[in-house]
Amino acid sequence: MDINNNLTPIVPLREIRRSGSSHAVSGHARPSPAGDQVTLSVQARSLHAAREAIRRMPAVDMDKVNKIRSQIREGTYVIDPQKIASKILSESLLEEIE
Question: How much is the pTM?
Answer without folding.
Answer: 0.35
